[in-house]
Amino acid sequence: MAQPSAESTYLGKMPAGFGMIAALHGDLDTGDGVGKVYYRQDASPATLRQAAEQINRAFPEDDEVEPEHAVVVTWVDVASRQHHDHSRGDGLEKQRNSFQLVIASAETTSYAILLYPRKGMQFASTAVGGSSQAMQAGFSKGLVKYLVFSTRQGPYYRITTERETSVRALAEETNSGKRGVWVYEIGTSPYFTSVAPGEVTDLPPDTGLESRVSEEATSKRYPGGGQQVTYSPYEPEEEVYLHTVQYQPQVVVVDDGDINVDVFSYNSETCANNRNKCSTFADCKDYASGYCCHCRPGYYGNGIQCVSEGKPQRMNGKVNGRVYVGNSPSPVEFNSNDLHSYVVANDGRAYVAISTIPARLGPSLQPLSALGGVIGWAFALEQPGYKNGFSIIGGEFTCQAEVTFLPAQEKLTIKQVFSGIDEHDHLVVSTTLEGRVPEVLRGSTVQIEPYSEIYQYSSNLITSSSTRDYTVSLDDGSAETRTYQWRQTITFQSCPNDEAARAVLPTQMLSVDQVFVMYDSNNELIRYAMSNKIGDVNGEKEENSCFTGRHGCDTNAVCRPEQGTQFTCQCAAGFTGDGRSCYGVDRPVDHCAAGSHDCDITERAHCSYSGGSSYICSCLPGFQGHGRVCQDIDECQSARCHQKAVCYNTQGSFTCQCRPGYYGDGFYCSSERTKSQCETHRDRLLGSTEYGPQPVPGQYVPTCDSQGAYEASQCHGSIGHCWCVDRNGLEIPGTRTGPGRGRPLCIEQGPTVRPAVGPTPRPDVYPLPPGTHLLFAQSGRIEFVPLEGYNMKKTEAKTVLHLPEKVIIGVAYDCVEKMVYWTDITSPSISKANLQGGGAIPVIRSDLESPEGIAIDHLGRTLFWTDSMKDRIEVASLDGTKRRVLIDTNLVNPRAIIVDPVNGNMYWADWNRDAPKIETSAMDGTNRRVLVKDDLGLPNGLTYDPQSSQLCWADAGTHMIECMNPVQGDRRKAMGAIQYPFGITSHGKNIYYTDWRRDAVIMVDRQAGTETDVFLPQKQTRLYGITTAYAQCPSGKNYCAVNNGGCTHLCLATPRGRSCLCPNNALGVSCVESEGGQVLRWRERGAGIEVEREGGRY
């Protein structure tokens, strides 16, 4: 049997690099003897009949399926490692999950059936590295062959998202008509083209709390009661373990038989052990059959999710899917497009914006104000006695809508999954669009008439339908009225224990008016705005201003209706004032700087200010948790040291020490000791003769201690002088003593400075000495070659950073903080390290696929990089927090990237074999243009010399180095007949490049066009990126060099000055975007949402 893959290859990665069906993907623990994993192959009639019932119920419109055989896998009482080890620090006591996976195969098709417990998921996260991440469920084919010698990620399908709420929803929702049961058609091996989910997302009404379904009580199509089907595992008298390796599941072989294991039993629960499931602003109350949560006065919601009355609400999310326009045979793809919404709760006005909508689709989406309809319903203005959506069901629900356009019957399906409120008090929504919409010509405007919609309420299910008219006005002055029908179903999980909470009016009417829609072609944004009121189905008018919205209360206030038309304004929780003007109780405070945050102590956690009064707590490397409580990771449990070494765990780190008789850094131990710097120095001076080592007469030879370090005091026996030395053997000025005066009193220098976090460095790794150097990447290391003038001092080349098992592609140097930054395609990630000593510090670890080129703006304190799989160019602050996509169109294989911060220009190369090119733009991504597109092959490397204004590139296809002045366009050949260049950098008159064929760093005189020197590293492997590490930063300034250019977030230099941009992940209450000092917009979380207010926009 093949050995299981290492955890590092799949934990936290969905999809992983190998094929998988993941019922619950994470670090599950069976090592305590309680959790078990059973599996069996089963062709018994009873099992196949159960499988057929699940499949046929999930696909009611398809022909009935009769499976021929099945594989049943059951996980019983398994714990998540972080919970079992109490590593989160949140008091969770061995929470356990039980669940099943059934793979049922018919003659031509296979299905996966996933079954989750009726009592709910006890845990939804898993430990990954030093953090806690949501578990995953889904399917993946793994890596597939791409081109000739490479691979790339194959097809995959994710059932869950990055949020824990989606994991908990597995036990509460369905796609098969039965709660907690999920069915997917997955094809037949070896083909994996798509995954088709079950089609029945509605749940039947609950009829009881039975703990188990007997086979006789299960109807063929739609069994009632919310009961749970299980495929029973077989447990033999003696368990036969295939694996007993630590941290691997204990797998019990099951051949045949059946026992009645009650996997999915229902347990009544009380507030005593579930109070933490309620909102911070809610109280828990026990009932005869269980408990429920209730929002406190001043808040509204379902008790699990509570928000302050009157406070504006914000929503963020992503849009995915495919939409066809008119008769077009090809769809427009949505790939994580941003959706942002803002609701002024006290007047029911909702604003929605969706980004990156191409012009061929944008105008045709204008009629679909319904995309924001459920948001308007959730926070609609309430007529007395009526409740909006959030007041009834909170922020966790699923809305499935079908739009039918008349008369041509085009259909569009909209699915929106609301996942609750995140740590920034924003509601999170995921939207999927699939179908076809009628075409609205470019330049047309759309006006939507006011409409009403009847909502019908029942247990865990809300439905509504309406017919909506809209008018399309063409740019020739003509207009036509069109119609579409709208049907939607909202499913949610209510609390079944409080009868009073169910007393919601069975029908309510949502009235929508003042509908505004617009497609902004310049920014590729679609915007919707509408006013929403919920009230009586008879449409009775409520004259009180609290319901009409004409009350004049502050946007952070709640309107309180009184007798007749009277009302009062009351500031929302967290604000103070008279209700018509409300101010934050505490003005925006940087709690990180003030020390008033609740993050763990600085030795274990880091506080990151995110704007306003918000901040984020994150555990330091070597610790795990949610940032407010961080616990040490015992790295010694994961066999990090060499097999001939002993591991010692420390707080936030660990050390490795070779066992007696072995030498090395603990990561690598050998019976042959590697010479230290002192020993190498000593032995070189001693030389060797036929009588053994003999010093040259009259020459000083250093003395080394037992560990190979320089002794603190050194003496020259021939002249009688002694002096103190530092750890590098250099004399410390003022410590020398003359003959006969004895040794000076020297202070032991101690070992080399160790990294703040992480293991001790290897003995063959050295900090960067003073001067200018070349830095280049070679497999899992970064090395340096000192420069003397423009020449390479090859004998002094050393490794500056050792990163085993990494493939480093691009390197860049920050001359201000003496830090090296690099891209790694194995993680993938972007990291940095101090070249004077220290471990690797992660900068960006998410939303990357193949980061390659990297560049630093040392003036504006930003980093730029290319991603050749995501086909985009991004920028971020040097700590990675403020991140923005600059260019994501018309890129195929972007790799090399450089910036000229003094002049505000950015250059990059795209080695697309069909159409290679070199492009430029301002550093904010504007004014993009192609510099070179003819006579290119594989332009791998770029460099720019600010002194001569020469842009040079190395081309592995044409086997040339060429240069040009980007302004003048005077292209010329600098060097020909080179072999396979990859990275390139320049310093003065010279160009230095790495070559894959020669495994070397090669120096070229740019002016003479000749090769002048070659450096062959000791390790003969492929070399990647190269950069120049200057002793002093190059001269020059730009607008961003002082006070961040006056920008609130990102300051990016341009030829005309600078642009202030908001990051895609802006977390603050506001972010000002401007160009050349002119304010363009004030954005909410980078959404481009603009809400009209007195005195301007915000």
Automatic annotation (TrEMBL):
Stretches for region Disordered: 203-227
Subcellular location: Secreted, Extracellular space, Extracellular matrix, Basement membrane
Pfam entry (one): EGF_3
Any single biological process term in GO: cell-matrix adhesion
Ranges where the EGF-like domain occurs: 542-583, 588-631, 632-670
Stored InterPro entries: 6-blade_b-propeller_TolB-like (IPR011042), cEGF (IPR026823), Cueball_EGF_LRP_Nidogen (IPR050778), EGF (IPR000742), EGF-like_Ca-bd_dom (IPR001881), EGF-type_Asp/Asn_hydroxyl_site (IPR000152), EGF_Ca-bd_CS (IPR018097), G2_nidogen/fibulin_G2F (IPR006605)
Major localization class: secreted
SUPFAM superfamilies named among the record's database cross-references: EGF/Laminin (SSF57196), GFP-like (SSF54511), Growth factor receptor domain (SSF57184), Thyroglobulin type-1 domain (SSF57610), YWTD domain (SSF63825)
CDD domains hit by this protein: EGF (cd00053), EGF_CA (cd00054), nidG2 (cd00255), TY (cd00191)
Keyword set, alphabetical order: Basement membrane, Calcium, Cell adhesion, Disulfide bond, EGF-like domain, Extracellular matrix, Glycoprotein, Repeat, Secreted, Signal
PROSITE patterns named among the record's database cross-references: ASX_HYDROXYL, EGF_2, EGF_3, EGF_CA, LDLRB, NIDO, NIDOGEN_G2, THYROGLOBULIN_1_1
Gene3D superfamilies referenced in this protein's UniProt entry, alphabetically: Green fluorescent protein (2.40.155.10), Laminin (2.10.25.10), Thyroglobulin type-1 (4.10.800.10), TolB, C-terminal domain (2.120.10.30)
Occurrences of domain Thyroglobulin type-1 (ranges): 675-746
Disulfide bridge map: 715-722
GO-annotated cellular components: basement membrane; plasma membrane
LDL-receptor class B repeat placement: 818-860, 861-903, 904-948
GO molecular function: calcium ion binding; Wnt receptor activity; Wnt-protein binding
Start and end residues of each NIDO domain: 23-189
Occurrences of domain Nidogen G2 beta-barrel (ranges): 311-544
Protein name listed in UniProt: Nidogen 1
Organism: Oncorhynchus kisutch (Coho salmon)
Gene expressing this chain: NID1
